[in-house]
Amino acid sequence: VWDTELIEHSIRQNYNASARGFQLSVLDLVRTANQEGFIYDWLRCADGRSIQCPSAWAEESLDDALRWAYSDENGQEINDGTILSHTYMNTRIGIVRHRLAAAGVRLAAVLESVLGSGKPEANSLPTLAFAQFWVADT
Asked: What distance in Å separates the CA atoms of residue 96 and residue 129, rounded to the nearest whole number?
């Protein structure tokens, strides 16, 4: 559900069936994170070659899954075969967009680290340029 259905539902409901509109909304989250300074929280551990960073990212995702994915909007446990409501979908898509934005920033930092000059500079934010290029190219 979280890999495809939430995103597809949001694209249909909130972006007039435009995947590009959804992509731009994720890019807007990256821009906001950059402007407000919390992009550095996403980059605090940006070395994808170190097991500690991907492990920390997985922990963040697990925390979000435990808090948001496995119970419905009324706090009831979701079991296999449960039909998820529009309210569930609409109240969870923000978490998905946030996770996608953070993942994109971190992926860009890892690529910069591996393919670029080494460790990403704290002030250079190549990740924002990468994200803008990716959206412009699609």
From this structure: 22
Angle in degrees, CA 30, 111, 47, rounded to 5:
85
CA 81 vs CA 77, 84, 95, 122, 138: distances in Å: 12, 9, 22, 45, 35
Structure tokens at 82: 């449960």
Report the predicted TM-score, pTM, of the whole model to 2 decimal places. Answer: 0.80
CA distance 49 to 71: 34
pLDDT digits 0-9 by tens, 44-80: 887 767 788 888 999 999 999 888 888 888 888 888 8
